[in-house]
Design a protein that fits this description.
By secondary structure, the protein is an all-alpha fold. It has helices at 18-21, 27-47, 55-61, 68-93, 97-106, 133-154, 160-188, 199-223, 228-255, 261-288, 292-306, 314-342; strands at 109-110, 120-121, 124-125, 128-129. It has a domain at 6-224: alix/aip1 like domains (Serine Threonine Protein Phosphatase 5, Tetratricopeptide repeat).
């Protein structure tokens, strides 16, 4: 039982032709720049939904990959080493007077998937333009993390272990973004930036993906029939990851005031969902131990809390309603059993012990790959 926030892939970009920006000194450099432009063009057509390829041809060209997100991941993994190499060689000459003029011709333009959908220019979605290669690397890596996360959701029903690993891998990409790629960008750029290029947003995304990885881990534990006590701790661990992520997101909103309120609503809803599941398992564990009064107290507290966090999105409300119905039915049975058999005192909210938490997932570190080919520019 998970809810999903699917909007992170709604990025668009304008075409970049690298060989028209960077003057090559030899034929080898020119060919590499052309190859970069070609690799990026494939990404542009996919995310802009402007490709003329049929599904069958796209699948054949990718070597048989059936999921669109898998094909896009493949395209990014072919483009990123070339981009890393260009960034490396550009940084070697970036202080040369002539090189400064190149950046004005670079015109890197991306939209944001995180701002409110109501924010548009008259002629379509808002494009952010930053003529700095670090911006390109940051946006491409953000998209890469979002695609890994999308694939994790795609295979959730068939391979829980691989799904959790993909969430952890995405968390590592965002962690790398937050600590290595984006801080220099924020120091160098003074124009308006999209939320995807802000370090605190990537820190939030890393924790968000870890929360999803832990949620999948808890689901695996449920399928294996682990104890209610362990399941309660795992779900409260998800809640703690999301609580930390929400704190960072609120700080990020101070830097990027246009971040969609629906994203905040999703995190709040997801946090409450896993808190409710934790309380449900705590109550079942208490009931199994014969502590019916305490179980009633926990369930009443859970249902009182949920009134403060009703999701706004219909699909999320359906999941909530299912869980609330389960908790309400469990409470009815516990109250009936206590009234007629045990007559135990029902503790107040302040008398309840705080839930125990267990966080067992960590990010898989992202190690950037660079295609180590020499690039020679006319400077």
């Amino acid at each position: 039982m998970m809810i999903n926030y699917p909007g992170l892939l709604k990025l668009k970009t304008k075409q970049v032709v690298f060989q028209e920006v960077f003057p090559a000194c030899d034929s080898g450099t020119l060919e590499q720049l052309k190859e970069m432009s070609s690799k990026r063009r494939a990404i542009e057509e996919s995310i802009n939904e402007s490709s003329s390829l049929t599904e069958a041809i796209a699948r054949e060209m990718s070597g048989g990959l059936t999921l669109r997100c898998e094909r896009d991941i493949q395209k990014l993994e072919q483009y990123l080493p070339l981009l890393e190499n260009l960034v490396y060689h550009f940084n070697l000459v970036r202080d040369k007077p002539l090189v400064v003029r190149w950046t004005s011709d670079l015109k890197l333009r991306w939209t944001s998937a995180l701002i409110s959908s109501s924010i548009f220019h008259l002629n379509g979605p808002k494009y952010f333009q930053i003529n700095y290669l670090g911006f390109e690397l940051g946006m491409v890596l953000f998209l890469y993390g979002a695609l890994l996360r999308e694939k994790a959701h795609e295979i959730l029903q068939t391979d829980l272990a691989q799904s959790a690993a993909l969430f952890r891998k995405a968390a590592g990409v965002y962690q790398h973004l937050a600590h290595e790629v984006l801080p220099p960008l924020q120091l160098a750029v003074t124009v308006e930036q999209p939320p995807e290029s802000v370090s605190s947003v990537s820190s939030f995304m890393s924790l968000f993906c870890l929360a999803e990885a832990q949620a999948v881990t808890a689901r695996r534990a449920e399928e294996k029939g682990n104890t209610q006590s362990l399941l309660a701790k795992l779900h409260y661990g998800v809640r703690d990851f999301l609580d930390e992520a929400l704190g960072i997101l609120h700080s990020a909103i101070k830097e990027c005031k246009d971040i969609s309120s629906q994203l905040v609503d999703f995190i709040v809803s997801c946090r409450m969902l896993h808190e409710l599941k934790s309380y449900k398992y705590i109550a079942e564990s208490l009931k199994a131990d014969g502590k019916i009064g305490a179980a009633v107290g926990v369930l009443r507290h859970a249902l009182t809390n949920v009134e403060k966090s009703t999701p706004k999105v219909e699909a999320w409300r359906i999941v909530f309603k299912q869980l609330i119905d389960e908790i309400t039915e469990l409470l009815r049975k516990c109250e009936h059993e206590n009234d007629f058999v045990w007559h135990e005192k029902i503790p107040s909210e302040h008398e309840l012990a705080p839930p125990e938490t267990l966080k067992i997932v960590s990010s898989i570190p992202y190690h950037p790959q660079r295609w180590e080919r020499t690039l020679a520019f006319k400077i």
